[in-house]
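Attaching the record inline, Q. Sequence:
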Amino acid sequence: MTKYQKYFQEMLEENSELFAEFKLLHDKYAINPEEFQSELNNKGEKILEIIRVYEKNLCLKSTSSQYGKFASNLSEKFWDAVRGHFPKIDFVGVQ
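Structure, as predicted:
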């Protein structure tokens, strides 16, 4: 398992209840975006904060080592994993 996958799994496991609730809301949003947009925005903000903390921790360790030039690729792969699990995550905050 790669480093970003490890961080992604760790994030999901340590915050399993929050992500389970968000997954249900996310799936409802995928079916009916207009009805669930405001709820997705409210609950999605907390989820985005958690994701950004794990992304920061993942990249922080890489930037301080000799592999700093790969940190942006690592971040992108981490976000690809997030988007693979939550395809509509980019719609959090949309008005």
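The chain is about 80% helix and 0% strand. The longest helix spans residues 33-63.

More tomorrow.
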